[in-house]
Structure prediction request, 246 residues.
Amino acid sequence: MTLSPAARSELAPTGKLRVGINYQNFLLVNKDPASGEYRGIAVDLGRELGRRLGVPVELVAFDAAGKLADAVKTGAWDVAFLANEPARATEIAFSTAYLEIEAGYLVPAGSPIRTIADVDREGVRIAVAAKSAYDLYLSRNLKHAQLVRAQGIDASYDIFVKDKLEVLSGLKPRLATDCAKLPGSRVLEGRFTAVQQSVGTPQGRPAGAKYLGEFAQDVKASGFVAAAIARHAVRGVSVAPHGPAR
Prediction:
């Protein structure tokens, strides 16, 4: 990997690297309750990127993926760790994925829904975190079921329970946690998509975007991502398949 002056100046125009993170995605970011510090796979990758650029890192934290993505409009961050979604790609230049997380469905006790294929039917209401990657995916692909959006992952669970909805959508590691606290509920076998987690920078920074593509490939190939997954003991995520740099 060669770091050009153009890439450094595009990724850290203020002399520091402002890294956007979403602490609602507990698989990638956690906030230490005692110190208030952020930790996790995305934080480790952000700090490693800053080290390679030779600049200090400032974490810019958001409590929802949609808010993190929308903040590109205000220039709040230089790079961000979030899901690579076509709806976001008009404003964000994404690297190839460094990690992927399966998304699936949870159904309540006594539900007649047995499989993923049973979900997309008339009369089925699906709770979903608004503007999450899987909301964007389901919005494009569902033909019959109705999405019921809530602001954030916790709120989607709450509305699922309160309004007795037929299905809760989410990342499978989180659904396993929800299932454990909801007697009789089931996580359906399989997945409806795998959310691809990438690092992005605002469009219009071609040298920076090229470098991020090379960075994503290198941290996969070198074992950095796998080591971060192991270090933070995260289950339900995997290193994304190797592909060409963007």
The CA atoms of residues 2 and 33 lie 38 Å apart. The chain has a mean pLDDT of 94.
